[in-house]
Amino acid sequence: MDESLLITWNGIQQRLNSWQDGVSGTNCAIEPGTNWTYVFQAKDQIGTFTYFPSINFQKVAGGYGPIRVNNRNVIAVPFPKPEAEFDLLIGDWFSTDYKSLRSSVQDRESSQLFDVPDAILMNGKGPYELSISKGRESFTVSKGMTYRFRISNVGTVMSFNFRIQNHKMVLVETEGSYTNQITLDSLDVHVGQSYSVLVTADQNEADYFMVANPKMYKSNESSGSKSLEGIGILHYANSLTTVSGPLPSGPDPFDIEFSVNQAKSITWNLTTGAARPNPQGTFNVSNVTLTQTFILHGSKGEINGWPRYVVNNVSYLTPETPLKLADYFVNGSGVYQLDRFPTHSVNDAAAYGVSVVSGIHKGWLEIVFKNDLDVMDSWHLDGFGFYVVGFGNGDWTPAARETYNIFNPVVRSTVQVYPGRWTAVYVFLDNPGMWNLRSQHLKNWYLGQELFIRVFDDNPNPAKERQPPQNLLLCGMFESSLSPVPSPAPAPQAGW
């Protein structure tokens, strides 16, 4: 490429190793004409994940792909082995060059041009029979067989509802967690999320539509507005019949209650193992003691006449030196000030800040995401899975904890936050490092809706956290360093 690049591994927890996370706060960018090798383990994980470019607005142009982390053979999967597995990456697409879009979202007059894409793609292919499509996505199945579809929303702005004509789906997994199995006619998938569903080819041998249409958007053909439906084909091996009939209908795109109720119905399978033999239910939140609470309001702001997205009225400003390098070598000096970000209040006026907050190592953190926007949002935390314990309307208060599901909340890394509502999660901070907490909506993220959580373990044992890799890239204040890996600074003093 002709500009710098980083790849991040969406949902891969990078245990003890935030050096490989691939976001601006942890890595120097890979410069044009050079290469860099990531080395990491998918430690203590199974499931469905994705990767994508994390900087320079490049994700809108593609560069994404699927990651499958399979069970070890000694651990049973809680459903019969499917005939085959299919990766299905669905996302919104813009015909405009990403560099032009990158410029437009920073301008107050043209920022809204990014709100409505030109199409929804399935595995990079356009909708069935759309004139601009160079191909269509099709999956071949055999009658009577069951298949696993790993579905990911790799888009940048729109949630979608997915369904298959005349076929049911059984939800079995999401982002590394086996779920209690529920049968669905359709599934909402929000930006950055991944699911596994089982589909049995139990219909007549023919071709059937697979459809993904956006949430919170309704096209109006009479006024010439865009029709945004991703359309692929489920093809039976002996089919001689092409697809026919209307597209399968789904819930009203603006029916938030449908989506919330479906989200609440997605729960953790407590009796099955996943990455380890002991059941997922061994790790539960029914009796935890919270050590921290963050209340995070995501909203729009304006700073010096420029449109920005803010968290508690702070818009993240990316420093030239990655936070992880500054933390390791100079205790953050000259790059960020720890805990200046407000975790319980909203500042009076929008302003830039290098937002880094302390997470107590091996403490339980409660995060309440409040969406002050009039559109969907979704939040992701690198380094961890979080327990999705609650959804609610309006403002959150401590009394809302009485409504939490602390019996079997699903564990995942990306969670949706509905317009004007809140979502609450619990996180066990057992993974030392510098971890990105961000909106998965690309414009929100690019314009400042993110922060970093510093989880510090003062034990110098390398088994507690990996040392920098030998191929560590240096930039910012360390760019002129002669040593491939400079010596670390003394450990921070208590209370620093």
Give a written overview of the molecule.
- The protein has 496 residues and is mainly β.
- Helices cover 6% and strands 33% of the residues.
- The chain is built from 4 helices and 27 strands.
- It has helices at residues 98-104, 256-265, 323-330, 442-446; strands at 7-10, 47-53, 65-69, 84-93, 119-122, 138-141, 146-153, 160-164, 169-174, 177-184, 187-189, 194-200, 207-214, 230-236, 290-303, 306-311, 314-316, 351-353, 356-359, 364-371, 377-381, 386-393, 411-412, 414-417, 421-428, 433-439, 450-455.
- The protein has a 6-stranded mixed β-sheet, with no helix packed on it.
- A hairpin with a 2-residue loop joins strand 9 (169-174) and strand 10.
- The longest helix has 10 residues, at 256-265.
- The model is unreliable at 491-496 (pLDDT under 50).
SSE diagram, text form:
Layout: E1 7-10, E2 47-53, E3 65-69, E4 84-93, H1 98-104, E5 119-122, E6 138-141, E7 146-153, E8 160-164, E9 169-174, E10 177-184, E11 187-189, E12 194-200, E13 207-214, E14 230-236, H2 256-265, E15 290-303, E16 306-311, E17 314-316, H3 323-330, E18 351-353, E19 356-359, E20 364-371, E21 377-381, E22 386-393, E23 411-412, E24 414-417, E25 421-428, E26 433-439, H4 442-446, E27 450-455
Parallel strand pairs: 4-7, 6-14, 15-20, 17-18, 19-27
Antiparallel strand pairs: 1-2, 2-3, 4-5, 7-12, 8-11, 8-13, 9-10, 9-12, 13-14, 15-16, 20-25, 21-24, 21-26, 22-23, 22-25, 26-27
